[in-house]
Specification:
By secondary structure, this protein is mainly α. 56% of the residues lie in helices and 0% in strands. It has helices at 3-16, 30-49, 53-58. It is globular and about 45 Å long.
Length: 71
């Protein structure tokens, strides 16, 4: 079993216990910075592990994924 398939549940387990995530924005661009960083997670995980998070998350019952429009 690839290392990524063993580690991914450990990384995602704490999120399963999360009921709500609140992002607070302000003049310091916190929300934009967090959104930018979160947006970099899927490609970074894919580059490091070969795991496509959009496909993994898309297999969760009731989950939907949205594809970015081509530029």
């Amino acid at each position: 079993m690839p290392l990524s398939r063993r580690l991914l549940p450990r990384w995602l387990h704490p999120l399963a216990k999360t009921e709500e995530i609140v992002l607070i924005g302000g003049p310091d661009n916190t929300t934009a910075d967090v959104a930018r960083l979160v947006g970099q997670i899927p490609p970074a995980v894919h580059a490091l592990t070969g795991v496509d998070l959009s496909k993994v998350l898309g297999r969760i019952p009731g989950a939907t994924t949205t594809q970015k429009a081509a530029v």
